[in-house]
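Review form for a predicted model. The reviewer records the input and the model, then writes brief findings.
Reviewer: anonymous (R2)
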Amino acid sequence: MHENTNLLCSFIGNRSKYYTVCDDEYELFHTDVQKYLCDRLDDSKKVRVANFSINRSKQSGKQLTILDKNRRSSIILTTRQYEQRCHRGLLLRVWLNVDQNLTTKTCLCPPSFYGDMCQYQNQRVSLTLNFQAYSDFRRTLFALIILLIDDSNQRIIHSYQQLTYLYIQYCQIKLNFYLLYSTRPKHSTKHYSIHIDIYEKISFIYHGSFFKSLIFDFLPVYHQQCIHGQYVKYLDNSKDISFCQCNRGWSGKYCTISHICTCSSDSLCIRVSANNRSICICPLHKLGSQCLLDNSICNSDQNTTCYNNG
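Model under review:
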């Protein structure tokens, strides 16, 4: 085996970096070891599934048709001109007129990028979080709502993430995500902060909130009272900084802005985002941004039998 390994490595060492020993032009020169290893490459290939037809596109054949392995090298020539078009995004073909066979190409950008080729970066806050829980709550299912807010009287929620957290499942895992500013660019005169609410997922019991300023380690003292809510102190702050936790249907820094909650009646409506959408915490048997979809996996019927120690 050692001798065959040396032969294989020696053969590869004399090839150009643009080719491999498994390319078709070297098939006649393969040793038994090389043939065996090259054949194993086909074992891991997955069957390509086509979910729609592109036969009506006259120009798509050269770029999108999967050629047989004897013409494999031509794929590189026909796709290379498009591979960097969208940078971090996905290239999509959009039909303008099916009858006239008119199409155009556009880029589907991830939230952190924008532009016709996803060439610009959005301003954003990157977060890495790791939560700890007391021993009494290590099997309690929590809903974590992480908000990017500003210090205006509206206390605008620029973006947010909602996570379902179970300590025994995620205790050794760091959670990584980012929050985007709702304006481009962000306002230089505003102060931004991270606000985290913690609720029990099943009972909706409120456990507390965390706060982290992105610029300063303090906030101005409130000069008004919570009109439609109550003051709550942050759990992680030694300076007794508090915020107004608003009642259902109210928002803003002092809970003075009314809004119509669009969450389902059996969910918890906690806040409203910058685009005037309600932020909802769903019960286990509901899904969706407004908790209007039934979750068949987590049925709320207490009489339902769970199998296999579930």
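Findings: The CA atoms of residues 95 and 103 lie 4 Å apart.
Further findings: Residues 2-13 form the longest helix (12 residues).
Recommendation: see findings above.
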